[in-house]
Design brief:
374 residues; mainly alpha; single chain
């Protein structure tokens, strides 16, 4: 997940690059929901209420992440320093974790035949693959006249194209693409609009209605629609339902995401700093979830009862919180944010900027020395 920098407020421009508490809070709360959803997966089959909550959470937690990712990709271009950050912050972690997860399964699940493939994202790594592709195509979306309708059109076509297959998880890349493009075209004032008091008040009955509709839909709707990883034909539905579901779920997800943003605190909270470590929480908590799945941690009967489900939810939130902390970031920075200066040539423009900065600093020092001697 990208590390957001504060956009300039329409009311007041901030000096320097300062993190925006709102976006860090949103990222932290979203990653908690991601971990809770993954912890619910082995339990939800025994509880219609839990299944309903699961569907509601899955309707907006990744769209919220992706919209924020798109919003902070607005300045991306093919400048060498930005390409370097994309490689070291997205591509390299993808390669490392796309290798680590299958190796982990070989070991903990005693499955020596588990394949390692960089073309078939495994479990959580699909997001890194998708983010790399989305960000590389950002200049195109900034150039076309109607980016969001075009992205929705591509998502609709994907849902009727089972031949796309699993390579690079392109179904998810295309079906989630409209949320990234939406983030690209959003402006700071749009986030200020959803944070108004009237929106917060309206979001309460909207969330309640979403839970009620989800409870009704549990036996009537395939939960796999929320994963956006399959075509309509692969889900056993008529082809025409794919485009219809793209539009319907985009609208529902957008509405619930706005409700979620409305309740995200704008001020610094005890968890605000954890928003900078959500990539760590995202990629690392998957090992614990998979270990629990392979080792039968979710099998005890008490976990499938209301108190057990609450305990698992609290534990998931606590674990992912720890995984976002500074000590964990320092321990795993070599994999998540490697510097890799050795791998890149120095850009000529960057060298020129460095020389100019050094010359400017030297001139300032010379002036200071002249003042002191005078």
């Amino acid at each position: 997940m990208p590390s957001p920098r504060s956009p300039q407020s329409p009311q007041k421009k901030q000096s320097g690059k300062q993190r925006d508490a709102f976006f860090d809070n949103a990222k932290y709360l979203a990653i908690v929901l991601v971990a809770m959803g993954h912890a619910w997966e082995p339990l939800k089959g025994d509880s219609r209420i839990l299944e309903a909550a699961y569907q509601v959470v899955y309707a907006f937690h990744m769209p919220a992440f992706i919209i924020i990712s798109g919003y902070f990709s607005r300045s991306f271009d093919m400048r060498p320093d930005r390409l370097k950050r994309l490689i070291t912050g997205v591509a390299v972690p993808y390669i490392l974790f796309e290798t680590a997860y299958p190796l982990f399964k070989r070991w903990i699940d005693n499955d020596p035949h588990q394949e390692i493939s960089l073309l078939d994202p495994w479990y959580l790594t699909w997001f890194l693959c998708a983010l790399f592709i989305w960000r590389m195509t950002t200049p195109i979306w900034k150039m076309v006249r109607w980016p969001l309708p075009l992205a929705l059109g591509l998502a609709m076509v994907a849902t009727v194209s089972p031949e796309i297959g699993d390579d690079l998880d392109l179904q998810r890349v295309l079906q989630f693409l409209p949320f990234f493009v939406l983030g690209l075209v959003m402006k700071p004032e749009h986030f200020h609009m959803v944070r108004r008091r009237s929106v917060r008040i309206a979001s309460v009955p909207l969330f309640a209605a979403a839970l009620a509709v989800s409870w009704w839909a549990v036996p009537r709707m395939n939960t796999a629609w929320f994963y956006h990883r399959d075509s309509a034909q692969e889900l056993g539905a008529p082809w025409w339902t794919g485009p219809v579901m793209v539009l319907a779920m985009f609208g529902c997800s957008l509405l619930l995401t706005a409700c979620f943003f409305a309740w995200v605190p704008r001020r610094h909270m005890w968890f605000t700093a954890l928003g900078a470590g959500t990539l760590y929480g995202y990629l690392l908590h998957g090992f614990l979830v998979k270990a629990g799945d392979y080792q039968g941690w979710f099998e005890p009967t008490w976990m499938h009862q209301p108190l057990g489900e609450i305990a698992v939810t609290v534990a998931a939130a606590a674990v992912v919180t720890v995984l976002c902390t500074k000590p964990v970031q320092r321990a795993f920075r070599f994999a998540m944010e490697p510097k890799m200066e050795w791998a890149f040539k120095r850009d000529a423009a960057e060298l020129a900027r460095a020389r100019q900065s050094a010359e400017r600093t030297e001139r300032e020092r010379e002036r200071e020395r002249e003042k002191v001697s005078a």
